[in-house]
């Protein structure tokens, strides 16, 4: 397969923005037509003298060279894609061009602070320039592209531009000194064909891509370090004032500025830098739930193919962090990979953490705390390692941390039941504990052999390893914190449900508004057909003159917490309801009410709670008071100021046999869940 010439795509960006966007979108339409109907000859040919093609497309400098690289052939006044050109190659150019066009059209938000000692993009008219835009060392630039009138170069920020140079806010060029495979190529030390152990060596080699000096400089230029540092300093000042006012004597409670900077980096990465991808949206109708039709591998990169409106879109799952700095999107693998690298850009000792439970994250060494800190950039969560087991309800079997100078089995940090962990490992049979320890020792030696460490530095690394092993063993039986009991937030609800990470913690609590306090009433209802809650005030005669005070879309928007619950739509029967997720044996959902904050209590309560059960399934309702006592009698809530309504679904021969709020999709004015309370 032909190599994707990224330089030709990037070279287009030196044109005026408006002309570039028009040209890029025109070419994308041409390529989409070819991909959609490859047998239609009319889509494969464009006439050069066509006014629209000449003005919108070929007027942009570098466009013809790009089209020739894609596979177009110039002949008799036309540009034609022959039938022997691989569609896979056309798709790859199409996806990369689309990504770059979107970045140019909608550039990153912050460019207001230039990091000290970083690199930025400048526009140079120097005749000594010998190459056009370059992003990777694997790109071969044809002579035509090498004579561009201007080029994008990397220049240290703060340096003085020459008279002919004009600093721009163009997208920064990301560049490494070597191709991805060259950056991660090392002699193998793990013998045999054990799948787990071979994967450990692969991941251990892969994190070495972070140590490329040119790539580190490119990554550093993307971080608004001054802004993040200012926020960290402000937080530190607040901490110091808080500790001073509380007359605390333990100075170890004060966090370090570097730890607080890590918090700010994590928040910025999630909010502004990286984007989560559930599925690629349709470019025709805008549907964000396109169908995954297949997964393939192109040039060693896994590719997910999505379909909608007769079009196919390709999502490349890059492991190359250089690519991720350009695309800035993906799922947990891409997030952790890119975030761990940015931590290295700021000088942190950082690990890429891999779990066989299909999730990855980061660990960062804290000098202040003298231990590794768990960081999940997808969730913007720090130092909550038990959340996967206790919040996400995942079984933890193997978790490994990979750094430039170490490999460690850190599983023991992410579970507090070490006996059951060992039992799972023995039953799984992935490898023996002896073989695992031997492999880790070999990989650790391999990594440290490549370091230019003094004997004192090597001694500190060994001590850190020993101290960590003791810390991991001491984690057995540790009680999870409140943060570690939280469910997952990254990814769409449907995506989390499919993966079995179904606990949804909205933590919404119903508290009476001023109007409800004045009226001494509280009313809430839910329509499953519209998937909408309505909060309302009754008139003098119940439904007569009632007034809706709030609407909230989504069954999970006003729940407190749920596990293994989702909203099912039956397309054939045209019915909707809440049910257990497929493959689960039980499920719960809770709604929380607190009238005590206004000094009120329940005087009278009515509840409609629609439920259907089949084949011996059960739906059980429990009313739980603030003291923890629970009852199945609705009357138990009288004179209660704070309570939780909990529904438990279980039994039956299928997940569908216990249903809540079942109704027709057309019954948009019916409410199978309604609660009416008179307050006193």
From TrEMBL:
What biological-process terms (Gene Ontology) are attached?
Answer: glycoprotein catabolic process
Q: Where this protein primarily resides, as one coarse class?
A: cytoplasm
InterPro entries annotated for this entry?
A: Galactose-bd-like_sf, Papain-like_cys_pep_sf, PAW_sf, Peptide_N_glycanase_PAW_dom, PNGase, PUB-like_dom_sf, PUB_domain, Transglutaminase-like
Q: Which UniProt keywords apply?
A: Cytoplasm, Hydrolase, Metal-binding, Zinc
GO-annotated cellular components: cytosol; nucleus
Tagged with keyword Zinc: yes
Instruction: Provide the cofactor list for this protein.
Output: Zn(2+)
Q: Organism's domain of life?
A: Eukaryota
A Pfam family hit? PAW
Which E.C. number(s) belong to this protein?
Answer: 3.5.1.52
Q: Which PROSITE patterns match?
A: PAW (PS51398)
Which reaction(s) does the protein catalyse, per the Swiss-Prot or TrEMBL entry?
Hydrolysis of an N(4)-(acetyl-beta-D-glucosaminyl)asparagine residue in which the glucosamine residue may be further glycosylated, to yield a (substituted) N-acetyl-beta-D-glucosaminylamine and a peptide containing an aspartate residue
What residues does the PAW domain cover? 484-680
Provide the protein's localization. Answer: Cytoplasm
The record's GO molecular-function terms, alphabetically, read: metal ion binding; peptide-N4-(N-acetyl-beta-glucosaminyl)asparagine amidase activity
Q: Which Gene3D superfamilies match?
A: 1.20.58.2190, 2.20.25.10, 3.10.620.30, Peptide N glycanase, PAW domain
Function text: Specifically deglycosylates the denatured form of N-linked glycoproteins in the cytoplasm and assists their proteasome-mediated degradation. Cleaves the beta-aspartyl-glucosamine (GlcNAc) of the glycan and the amide side chain of Asn, converting Asn to Asp. Prefers proteins containing high-mannose over those bearing complex type oligosaccharides. Can recognize misfolded proteins in the endoplasmic reticulum that are exported to the cytosol to be destroyed and deglycosylate them, while it has no activity toward native proteins.
Q: Which family does it belong to?
A: Belongs to the transglutaminase-like superfamily. PNGase family.
Query: PANTHER family attached here?
Result: PEPTIDE N-GLYCANASE PNGASE -RELATED (PTHR12143), PEPTIDE-N(4)-(N-ACETYL-BETA-GLUCOSAMINYL)ASPARAGINE AMIDASE (PTHR12143:SF19)
What protein name applies here? Peptide-N(4)-(N-acetyl-beta-glucosaminyl)asparagine amidase
